[in-house]
Amino acid sequence: MIAFVLQRLWQAVIVMLAISLLVFVGVFAIGNPIDVVLSPDATQQIREETIRAYGFDQPLWRQYLAFLDRLAHGDFGRSFLFNMPVLQLIGSRLPATLELTLTAVIGATVIGVPLGMYAGYRPDGALSKIIMAISVLGFSVPTFWIGLVLIFTFAVTLGWLPAGGRGETARAFGVDWSCLTLGGWRHLILPAINLALFKFAMMVRLARAGTRELMLSDTVKFARAAGESEGVILRRHVLRLISIPIVTVFGLEFGSTLAFAVVTETIFSWPGVGKLIIDSISSLDRPVMVAYLMLVACLFIAINLLVDLAQAALDPRLRGARA
Amino acid sequence: MSAPLLEVRDLRTEFRTRAGALRAVDGVSFSVGQGEIVGLVGESGSGKSVTGFSILGLIEPPGRIAAGSIRLEGRELVGLSHRALRGVRGRRVAMVFQDPAATLNPLLTIGRQMRLALSAHQALGAEAARARCLAALRQVGIPDPEARLDSYPHQFSGGMRQRVCIAIALINEPRLIVCDEPTTALDVSIQAQILSEMRKLVRETGVSLIWISHDLAVVSALADRVMVMYAGRIVERGPTRETLRAPRHPYTAGLLASLPAAIPPGAPLSQIAGSPPSLIDAPPGCAFAPRCPRAAEPCRAEPPWSEDGARAARCHFPLEAGAP
Ligand SMILES: Nc1ncnc2c1ncn2[C@@H]1O[C@H](COP(=O)(O)OP(=O)(O)OP(=O)(O)O)[C@@H](O)[C@H]1O
Ligand SMILES: [Mg+2]
User: Fold this and answer.
1) pLDDT tier at A321 (50, 70, 90 boundaries)?
2) Element (DSSP H or E) covering residue A11
3) Fewest CB atoms within 10 A around its CB: which of A3, A50, B159, B160?
4) Which string of DSSP letters, residue by residue, matches B214-226?
């Protein structure tokens, strides 16, 4: 197991190196950042000094090596736009996205999987039909539209919940979290629902399909023939067996939502990294883009590793024969 | 003579389909005595498995037991509530399936799976439960059971996996086990080992077996009595040796003639011509008649049972003893 993790970490280093090169070249290709840093009426002398200060006069490979060297020291540079260290900037935004995404993905899973299992267990029941109708809705209606409907219904018309922002936060691990205060939860709930609906639909489908198939399997027939109750069969056999694909989808969804929650964050003015990256792209804030892309790559690698470890924990066949 | 362990009377099991009610089991009657091994043979689709599932009350919609009676130890099972049936399954009658790899849950240790089956009926302490699991594994001839309790199914060979399934079926000491082709997926030498293991089990514990198979060789090696099923009905029954040596029903004779061992080397494999009839809206009369070399006008009517001691065949024109 440890050898497996070490091997994966080693692979991760190589992947990160490759990505750093892609990111660096890609971002270099999109435009000259010097125009962002300087006002258009700066003198030629100031311009040249600035170029030298940022190292933009060096050949590309030298800039890349310098970039790697800075990364290795944890120095991602300063944001041109906010004039603060990039790590600090992203660090101040990431918790907001993290708690929003986690709430959405965990909520979708914890609610969607049991409902999907029910729909698979009683495919002809009235409740199952309702569950499936909601899941079709979650798949087919665009996120931004649902977001607007949620705001209009719960914030504007009913006035039960705030329309945007993070609300009160409390500090833990040196960062601010909305999910630690009641007021924060009130702000969190609408964007989380908005983000969760698609994932909920997916979890329902996945759990339903798996349950339907398993209810006809010999494993379930054998458990029934042994006199095990339906509750035991659903919890100990079916849930266990469908958890393997669910963990995979959970990881993928968590990663992609973390990286691309931007629509929801924009609609609900949620100050997360999604908004930050859009702002930095439109203003060519190169260090932010670079650091963000590196961070996303890193997160995906970490999530994939965690998914693989979870799979191995669930499925003895992946742990190798130790008979 | 005391009442048999299992008594099935006029069992009819149907499946609702778009084309109409499919009679998978159509008026089947038989009994199984204490410590007896009864073979149930027939072509694919003849209703062997459905008969087995009916006995365990495991017919799910769109299927249902439409008529008949199933008495186990004198107790009527047809019409019992789900709850009461659950108390019977595993405890009084258990079932083993064809493919042990698909039967066992690949994610749970076999000890865990055995305890799940055990706790469905008995609340035993950890020590007693463990002892019971080990005893069941020993009964089916698994070497070094202590070391195997924490193994997962994929760590066993096919034959050992099927033994584990049988051990799970045995764990609550049922009086009857329905074995649905348990050795079909295994190679011949493993099959022979399991058959001898099963005979020993029956001798030592007095459990009864219904052994479903389409392999006449297996049934003749194991069963005391054999029942031949065709299109949802039992067409012939009797003691295994006599029945397979000199079948009375032309269908049984056809099955035997199509065994590779019955055919001289080099001769073409004989087959029963035609294919089994549809089980939906079957016409009255003998279902085998369209494929039967001896069929004649009377076969349009329901054939009577022609009985002869322990043997019986459901045919208007049964083969005589010594006839081909
Ligand atoms: N769930 C079901 N729905 C509809 N029809 C079914 C169902 N289960 C079984 N049948 C039908 O019942 C008939 C008997 O099936 P059964 O499984 O008992 O055959 P079998 O004798 O066990 O055959 P095999 O040797 O292939 O296992 C078949 O025609 C089958 O199509
Ligand atoms: Mg079958």
Assistant:
1) very low
2) helix A2-29
3) A3
4) S-HHHHHHH-SEE
- CA B48 to chain centroid, in Å, comes to 6
Q: How far is the CA of B49 from the centre of ligand 1 (A)?
A: 7
Q: Give the residues of chain B that fall short of pLDDT 70.
A: 1-2, 262-263, 269, 321-324
Q: Is B276 touching ligand 1 by the criterion CB < 6 Å?
A: no
| Shortest alpha-carbon distance between residue A236 and chain B (Å) | 9
Does the structure show a pLDDT above 80 at A289?
yes
Residue B165 counted as domain residue = no
Nearest CA in chain A to B53: A225
B54 touches ligand 1 (CB under 6 Å)? no
Residue among B58, B61, B318 at smallest CA distance from B70: B58
Task: Quote the percentage of chain A above a pLDDT of 90.
Answer: 36
pLDDT at A26: 81
Residue B269 has a pLDDT of 66
Residue A137 distance to chain B (closest CA, Å): 30
Please say whether the dihedral angle defined by the alpha carbons of residues B143, B145, B147 and B149, taken in this order, is positive or negative: positive
ipTM of the complex: 0.93
At residue B324, the pLDDT reads 46
Instruction: Mark which residues 100-129 of B lie under 8 Å from A by CB.
Output: 102-109, 116-117, 120-121
From the alpha carbon of B48, which atom of ligand 1 is closest? 21
Q: Is residue B149 part of a domain?
A: no
In angstroms, rounded to a whole number, what is the distance separating the alpha carbons of residues B7 and B32?
7
Torsion of CA B138, B141, B147, B149, to 10 degrees: -70
Which token pair is A74? 């944890």
Q: Do A224 and B116 touch (CB under 8 A)?
A: no
DSSP category for residue B46: S
Structural domain containing residue B81: 6-92+174-314
CB-based contacts of A131, cutoff 8 Å, min separation 6:
A115, A116, A118, A119, A204
Instruction: Report the CATH number at residue B87.
Output: 3.40.50.300
**Vertex A127 angle, CA A125 and A133, to 5°:** 110
> Which DSSP helix (H) or strand (E) runs through B208?
strand B208-213
Considering the domain boundaries, does residue B225 fall inside one?
yes
pLDDT computed for residue A103 by the predictor: 94
- B208 within some domain: yes
The whole model's pTM is what?
A: 0.88
CA-based nearest residue to A202, from A125, A97, A104: A104
Q: How many domains does chain B have?
A: 1
A229 vs B86: CB contact, 8 Å cut-off?
yes
What the block records as the tokens of A246 is 């669910």
Q: B291 is written with which tokens?
A: 């494929």
Report the residue from A227, A237, A240 with minimal CB separation from B89. Answer: A227
pLDDT tens digits for range A207-252:
999 999 999 999 999 999 999 999 999 999 999 999 999 999 999 9
Per-residue pLDDT of A24-62, as tens digits, reads 888 777 666 676 667 777 788 888 887 787 777 778 888
pLDDT in tens, A19-32: 888 888 887 776 66
